[in-house]
Amino acid sequence: MKILKENMMRLKDNLILRKVANQYIIVPVGKRVQEITNMVYISSSAAYLWDFMKENEFTKEILVAKILEHYTGVTEDVASADIVKFLDTLKRNNILEPETGEPVVMGGSVRIKLQNKPEEK
User: Fold this and answer.
1) Would you tell me which of 20, 46, 47, 113 could form a disulfide with 24, CB atoms 3.0–4.6 Å apart?
2) The model's pTM
3) How many Å apart are CA 55 and CA 61, to the nearest integer?
4) Cβ(36)–Cβ(93) under 8 Å?
């Protein structure tokens, strides 16, 4: 399997994984608290990957291979689909470093107040 450097991803710094009441939660610390405002819960399988991801750059393919070597009875198709969902969750919650040229989404909230009710036609 050939891994291209431009396909490599990595987690942002200042994130820790905690197990609370049998659930795994990604917790921002320091400056990340301002960027990551959602509580992000992950599965035990994702927590297994987190230990690898926090120390290494990775691709979807590397994570799929990790799952296949760690768990029995999982097909590559199922593992790949699950990894895509996991990576999407991390991207949507600003946990992965952005790829070159990718827009950076900052956490927070916006309040919009509409002054006038639109006229009905």
Assistant:
1) 47
2) 0.75
3) 17
4) yes
Q: Are the beta carbons of 83 and 68 closer than 8 angstroms? A: no
Are the C-beta atoms of residues 78 and 64 closer than 8 Å to each other?
A: no
Distance CA 95, CA 85 (A): 14
The predicted-structure confidence for 36-67, as pLDDT tens digits, reads as follows 888 899 999 999 999 999 999 999 999 999 99
**What is the helix (H) or strand (E) element at residue 27, kind and residue range?**
strand 23-28
SS3 label, residue 28: strand
In angstroms, the CA 106 to CA 15 distance is 16
Kindly state the tokens that stand for 84: 């895509």
Ranges of residues in the chain with a pLDDT under 50 are 3, 101-121
Question: Tokens 């590397």 correspond to what residue?
Answer: 62
Q: Which helix (H) or strand (E) holds 24?
A: strand 23-28
